[in-house]
Each structure stands twice: as structure tokens, then as C-alpha cells.
## 1
Amino acid sequence: MDDRTVEFIFNETGAGYTAERLIMKTRIAPAATYQALADEATALIAAGKTSDDQEWTDLATKIAEFRPDVLLASGPYTYSLEDIGDSYMTLHWQPNSIYSGSVQFGEIRLWQGETESTTPLVLNGDIAWATNVYPPATQQAFVDAGIRLVNVPLGYGAALLMQHDTYPFNIKEVRQAMAYAIDRDENAFFTNGFGATGTEYMAGVLDTMVSTLLDADSIAKLNHYDFDVDRAAELMETAGFTRDADGKWVDAEGKRISVEYKAPAEFADFPRRQHQRCRTANEFGFDITLRAIPWQQTAEDIRQGNFQLSVWSWAGGNPLASRQFFGPIQRFNYVGLSDGQKGMNFPMEFEYNGEMINLDALINDVSSGFDRDAQAQRAGRVALILNDLMPFIPLNIISAAQPFNESILTGAPADGDPLYAAPLDDAWMLKLLLEGVVRPAGS
């Protein structure tokens, strides 16, 4: 080993591909800036401290609050605090990266904003490439303006989240009935036109990854919950509900299922799909009221458990099953949140098929080791549990038509290039930007 080489040694039953992926995705940090913090972490490990100990909590807080005066960048661009504004930040070329000689831009401006705020910036040329999910009408406006659209998978989709302290979402049959009662293909179209597809396998991992991540026996047992209001009605009746004179489901005491559905107001693709979802659920017999609130508040309310129904993403662009299972069953549940936050509050330790299980531990263990067959069997077990209990409803999988303005930039491959198959977590633009393939138009 030398000063520029790091060796990682894995045992057969350890983190395996999970750690390997983490190593590849972890950014290099300069010792000149972070060595003291790293030394503190090393000392805690040597002392046998765990994440449950106050010392780790204190160090995590210290790291989160640390603000270096100067950024020592390993990439070809850097910035200072003066380069950060309310709407955008500016990156400046620096000479000390292995990519400094290949990139073709001296300065890059990164804009922050949702679809409504970035749309005019794309149309007027201030933004040359964007990753927002634009609705069909906006996509057509880009095409009419001569802006190329590059279609890429995002690696996630929208999921209906239920707060499990809210009656009757603590009843499995009611959750299953909702899955049957929502036309996911129609909902996908309302989400993003032909840029979204209704979820097929309902397995907690992306449909495109099911055959890779799960074993064949588990795949064959998955319930697809195809749109079927008759089957949904049977499940509601099994759970003890009947319809009143207005066609609304009521329990044995005559109480309707009247709940509020919180949804982010700023996401341009959300209003249509939320109205469609509420409409179809209400036509089936629920009594759901839609409430649009700021997206930051939506996320915070979900974390705090301050909702009855809501929506956020599920799965993720990670190729490992454990990380796809993470959202939202761990991400927005008490096991993955700060102390005092309960999120969905779906119990993760329970009896299932005569056995006490810890679903949180099962998910964390799914991608351990290097035996792919064993991983597929573990992932299949988790998928079947989620598919049966339906703690959230994975509604669709979204792809994005990314505007790429060829009057400003050049170098994007032709449509159908394998690079475009990578989800947003491994964005094609980053590779081509670093290699100097994407460059100013006319150069």
C-alpha cells in the first residue's frame, strides 16, 4: 500500500456489495480538512462505542455543524460561500483534479427550483440541462422551442403512504383493498403522460429489477393487485365494512372512512395524479379530502407522523435490493427517523406466518455478503411480506424527459444509448461532463 491506495478487506458474511457500492459512491474528503473528525471517530470505534452511545450522537452533531472555511475539491470545480445564492450557485474550474484537463467549461451554474420555476429558465436558455420531472404540456413546449428531450429512468416512483395509527389503515385488508381500487396505469398517465408506468409487481423493488434482485419462486407468488373494484369490495367486507346509502364504506358503528390526504403543492406533476387518486378512491367508497401544502411541510409532516394519507417516493436508483426496500418503509418509518419522529409508524417487529420477525433487520441483511442466490432469496422473502401486508402502495415508476438544449451544449449521445439506462443516481451527464464529451455547442 502507498499514500494513494486504500485497501478494503471483506469477510464472507459482511456487508459485501452494500459496502462496495458505498465505497464507490462516497466522495473523497481531504485529510487537511476532516482529519481531526476522522480521528475522533476512530477513537470511538477503538473504544467499542456504538451508535446508541451519546459519544456518537455528539460527534454526529459536531460533523453536521462543521463548516470549513475553504473547500478542497477533488473534482475539477470548486466554490466558496460567496458563490451560493438563493436561486443558484456557481462552480469555478480548479486545476488540481484528474479531470481538470478534460472538462470543457470554466464555470458552471447550478440552479435550484421545482418544475414551475425552472420551466421559463429552460425556455429562455438560462438552463441548458435539467433533471426536473416536467408534465406533458411543458415537454411539448420544449419540443416546440427546438429543445431536445432525453428520456431516462429516475429509479423511483410515487407511493401512497398511510399513517398506521390512523384507523382503518391499521387493518391489512383495507390497505389491500386500496391497492386493488386504484387504477395504477391511469394514475401513471396522470403523473407524467407516457413517461410513467403503473407498478406491476408491487414488490418494493423496481419492476425492471425484479428478475435480477428476487428469486424466481418469490416472483411467482407476488400478488400484482390488478385493478379490481369487486375484489377490493370483498376485502372491505371481510374487514367488517359495509356501504351506506351514499355508497360510502362504514364500519360496524356506522363510521365512514373520512381522512385527509396531504400532498406537495409545488410538484407540477402532482396535482393531476392526486385528484385522480382521490377521485377513484372516493368513487369506490372512501371519503378522502385532498389538501395541498408546501413540499417541505409535506415531508416534515410525514416524518412527524402528522398525516393520515400522503405521497412520497418509493424504491430508488440504487442497484441493491436493500436500498430499494429502504424507501419508504425505513426512510419514513420510526426505524429510520430521529428520536421522537414516528413517520408511518408501521410496526417492524411482528408475528408473521407463526414466526416473530424483525422486518427492519431483514431488509438491512438482504444485500449482505457476495452470494447472489442467497441475496435473491432474502430479497424475495422481504418482497413477499411487503406484497402481502401492503404497508404502502407503490403506485408507479417515473421516467423523465430531460431537456438538453443543443444550441448551448453538444455531446449527448443519440437516443437509445446504454448510458441513458442508468437512473438519476448515476446521471449520464456527470460522466460525459467530466470526460469532456459534453461541451459548449460549436466547440
## 2
Amino acid sequence: MERLHAQERLDRIHPSIALAQKRTYTHELDEEDVLSLCDLFLTPGLHYISFSTIKEGRKTINLFIDLLKCYHTIGYIDRAGCKYNQGMNLYELFAHYEDDKALREGINQFFVEEFDYDFIWIIYPKYQVSHTLIHIFLDQLIEFNIDQKIPVVFISA
């Protein structure tokens, strides 16, 4: 039943996220989980990871980024405004747009002129992040085939 609700949330983000590799962690990570996550973080494509809490998801993804030391330009979308040692919060670039058309144009221009990231992660708590921003960002990410070149990881609870 919980898996069905998670799938419904995914489908509301973007139809193509249904094709994402999905993992759920509700307990302390064991050795097999760590190896599985390492593989996931090194594999291009859309990935969806559910943790017991968003805080645990943030902590885990930042731990792996620090441990792997293989990414040079990391982008993330986190409306909470948390700052991390590595990466640029892309939410800050697009939060000021007031209508969808301008947002789409801004994101499109970003992908054409500025995008040089080799890893993207997106916090998707069901109660806070603008669905429009994530939807348009993901549209453009897929249109430019970026999801085929780098890991794009959704974090949820």
C-alpha cells in the first residue's frame, strides 16, 4: 500500500519519473544498501529514493557525495534553503519567477547557456516544493537528454 502511494506521488511530479529506479530505506543502511546507493549515484538516469525522513535523505546524499568525491559540479533543488558544502541550490535561481511561461523560458535558457552539472539531486517533500518548478525543470532536463548523461536523484520521505 505504501509503495502504491509513493508511485502516485511520483506520477504527480512528472509522467517520466515512473521509469525511474526506485529505492526505499526505512532503516539504518547496511552494507548492501551502501553498495546499492553507490551504484545508483554513479549511474546516469532518473532515480527516486525514499527515506524515513527528508532530513535523513539530505544527510545520506551529502555523505555519499563527500565519500565518492567524483562530482565536480553538483546542483540541487531544496526549497528549505539549506546550504551544503558541495553544490548549488538551483531553487534560488528560479524561485523569483511568477508565471509558468517565464519560468520555462528561464529554465530553458539555463540549460542552453549555463548547465554544466554532473550530478543533480532534488528534494521532493510532498508538502513544500513547487510542483511547477520541478515539473518544468524535469521537462527541460529530459528534452536536453541530460537524464541520459548524469544521475538525477529525487529524495523523498
## 3
Amino acid sequence: MALNTKLKSFVMMMICLMILKSKDTLQCDAPTHVNRCPRNQQEWKIREKELNCQSLHQSNDSKTELLYHCVLNAEGTELIEVCAPSKKIYGSKCTEFNDGGSIIHESYISCEKFQVPCPTPYNSTKAYEYQECYDIVEKEREKRKNRTENYDYKCSCFEKWTVAAVGGVIANVLIAIIYYQKKQNNKIKNEIKIL
């Protein structure tokens, strides 16, 4: 029985290692953290072409067109590139991507009093026209840099899966060890009773 548990644990570890080893081929539709968003329509068009969001639309069963976006994260602390449906942004707010809901929508950050204020409404694919929204992230980065050195906030989809996979392997190994030790203790107790 202990051999069976060891075999299961070994197979689980091998599967996790294969997943980890295939890092380069793993496709992830998750948003990507970037240091800078396009500053004008020309830069936007270049990034839009490089990301090729329309190809995702063709491989996706959804009839919703996916378009290039470079927007704030939900906390307003990072810039994110993502392929998502466009949305009208109301309330003179910056545009954000909410990772939890996987949607583009209004940020809590108001752009009403910016030098170039956001109109209400505007299309989320025009976020580059309101650069002060992006500048907020740069200010936030400076604050973080002053608080901590060498802090890397970026976490890709692959890293999240890696943590989950490694955690699963560790849990399985611990369960197997505990099971094996209990089995050995029961065996010793039975041998003592026989004597």
C-alpha cells in the first residue's frame, strides 16, 4: 500500500515537473504588466499590431471582438496590456482592467481635473489620450521604490500556476510521508502484539 502511495506521489511530481518545464510553450491569455503604455495613436497602433488581438478573436468561440488595451490595474499601481472588448468609460474616470472580473471598466481614479480631462463617455481603446492616468502609475512606482528596493510586483499567469503546482506537490509528499509513517507504526505495533 505504501508503494502505491509513493507511486502516486512520484507521478504527481512528474506531471508538475512537465508543466514547469513547458514554461516557454505555455500560452496564457492573462494580462501582461508593462513599464509603459503607448503615448500616442501611432505607438498604440504599433502595439495593437504586435499583440494581434484579432487573432485571439478568431480562435475564441465568442462573437465579441477583442481589442488591444493598455490601461491601469484595479489598484492603479501598474500598467497592463490586455486584449479585451472595448467599453464606454463614464464618470470622467481613468480606464482599468479588473483582473478578478477580467473586464475593462471605469477606475476609481478620477481624471476630471487633469490637464487633459477625460470626457464622459469615451471609448476604452482611447485611453492613451489621457496620459495623466498613466502618470499616476509612475508616481506610485516612485513611492514603492522609495519604500523598498528590488521589489518585483509582476506576477504572470505561469508564476501563479507554478506556485499552485509546487504547493500541490508539497502537500502530496507530506501526506504520503505521514501515511507511510502511520503504516510503519501500525506494522511495528502488530509485530509487538504478536510477540
